[in-house]
Amino acid sequence: MHSYTLIAPAKINLHLEILGDRPDGYHELVMILQSIDLVDKIELRPNGTEQIRLHCNNPQVPLDASNLAYRAVEVMRGEFPKIAANYGGVDIFIDKKIPVAAGLAGGSTNGAAVLVGINLMWELGLTVPELQTLGAKLGSDVPFCISGGTAIATGRGEQLDPIVDLDNLWVVLAKYRSLSISTAWAYKTYKQKFGSSYISDSEGVKSRTAQVHSGSLVSAIAHKDGASIGKLLYNDLEKVVLPAFPQVAQLREAFQEVGCLGTMMSGSGPTVFALCESSDRAEIVRVKVRETIPDPDLEFWVAQLSSAGIEVTSFSK
Ligand code: ATP
């Protein structure tokens, strides 16, 4: 049996709009998701036992059944019990570079990598759409993390419509190390504040989704027009996170002032990103914001937008 090493990219949201409630308890969303080349490395090794054992270099990451990498193996075991019994347990090594609870889908992309890796290890032959259907059971961002690139995501985020991949732009990401925001808190607070403005019928949802499909941001992406993309970034969750966490609002302002193409919080935050036309420009923006906010608790990353989803980098006997 082989061991597999996979690369699992983070994502940012170029657009995140909350349309309404869903009967299943999730929110009806329309988003534009974008992979970046800030990645975790996941290694899967058959361990000759029945157990799923997790190892991670970041102590913030849970090593029990709450880890999405662990749950991904359980989903596969549930779907293919006989095959799973033949293959036994697995050791999962997570080399974590993506900050945790940061709005960058760090857990979802690990779960996506394990689905792709187990598909190979157990020789299941599942297609990408089949893996994405299983991924939706793990989490709303998992189907996107499997295929990556640039995509419009609707429903609770699991229905994907790939669009032109962006790769000609860079981002500076910044996050306060000690600050994490729970996705559940952000959506709950949004509902408390703005629930009365939700679209309540499926025709309304369809029509707003169609507007985003044919809208200016998708057109700017089609033309790889960084200046327009920067101006059109949008995230509803900023309306609740920025007032509650002034340091995130201040970071956002600092990026705005140093002159990037545009800046926005990713997902439910607290990571803020600044879009830049080149890696040199991104580096200048990083240095300037570091000078404006010298707090050592603030961490930075520079990454390129990427067309890659989960990729297998090596396998060995
Ligand atoms: P999203 O953008 O999908 O909402 P996020 O980037 O905000 O996710 P994650 O990094 O996925 O957040 O972490 C959210 C929580 O998920 C963490 O606090 C952690 O307890 C849990 N978690 C489960 N599996 C993982 C994993 N493999 N890596 C990181 N966190 C994980």
From TrEMBL:
<feature type="domain" description="GHMP kinase N-terminal">
    <location>
        <begin position="67"/>
        <end position="149"/>
    </location>
</feature>
<dbReference type="GO" id="GO:0019288">
    <property type="term" value="P:isopentenyl diphosphate biosynthetic process, methylerythritol 4-phosphate pathway"/>
</dbReference>
<dbReference type="InterPro" id="IPR014721">
    <property type="entry name" value="Ribsml_uS5_D2-typ_fold_subgr"/>
</dbReference>
<keyword id="KW-0547">Nucleotide-binding</keyword>
<keyword id="KW-0808">Transferase</keyword>
<comment type="similarity">
    <text>Belongs to the GHMP kinase family. IspE subfamily.</text>
</comment>
<dbReference type="InterPro" id="IPR036554">
    <property type="entry name" value="GHMP_kinase_C_sf"/>
</dbReference>
<protein>
    <recommendedName>
        <fullName>4-diphosphocytidyl-2-C-methyl-D-erythritol kinase</fullName>
        <ecNumber>2.7.1.148</ecNumber>
    </recommendedName>
</protein>
<dbReference type="InterPro" id="IPR004424">
    <property type="entry name" value="IspE"/>
</dbReference>
<dbReference type="Pfam" id="PF08544">
    <property type="entry name" value="GHMP_kinases_C"/>
</dbReference>
<comment type="function">
    <text>Catalyzes the phosphorylation of the position 2 hydroxy group of 4-diphosphocytidyl-2C-methyl-D-erythritol.</text>
</comment>
<feature type="active site">
    <location>
        <position position="141"/>
    </location>
</feature>
<keyword id="KW-0414">Isoprene biosynthesis</keyword>
<feature type="active site">
    <location>
        <position position="11"/>
    </location>
</feature>
<dbReference type="Pfam" id="PF00288">
    <property type="entry name" value="GHMP_kinases_N"/>
</dbReference>
<keyword id="KW-0418">Kinase</keyword>
<feature type="binding site">
    <location>
        <begin position="99"/>
        <end position="109"/>
    </location>
    <ligand>
        <name>ATP</name>
    </ligand>
</feature>
<dbReference type="InterPro" id="IPR020568">
    <property type="entry name" value="Ribosomal_Su5_D2-typ_SF"/>
</dbReference>
<dbReference type="InterPro" id="IPR006204">
    <property type="entry name" value="GHMP_kinase_N_dom"/>
</dbReference>
<dbReference type="InterPro" id="IPR013750">
    <property type="entry name" value="GHMP_kinase_C_dom"/>
</dbReference>
<dbReference type="GO" id="GO:0016114">
    <property type="term" value="P:terpenoid biosynthetic process"/>
</dbReference>
<keyword id="KW-0067">ATP-binding</keyword>
<dbReference type="GO" id="GO:0050515">
    <property type="term" value="F:4-(cytidine 5'-diphospho)-2-C-methyl-D-erythritol kinase activity"/>
</dbReference>
<dbReference type="GO" id="GO:0005524">
    <property type="term" value="F:ATP binding"/>
</dbReference>
<comment type="pathway">
    <text>Isoprenoid biosynthesis; isopentenyl diphosphate biosynthesis via DXP pathway; isopentenyl diphosphate from 1-deoxy-D-xylulose 5-phosphate: step 3/6.</text>
</comment>
<feature type="domain" description="GHMP kinase C-terminal">
    <location>
        <begin position="218"/>
        <end position="293"/>
    </location>
</feature>
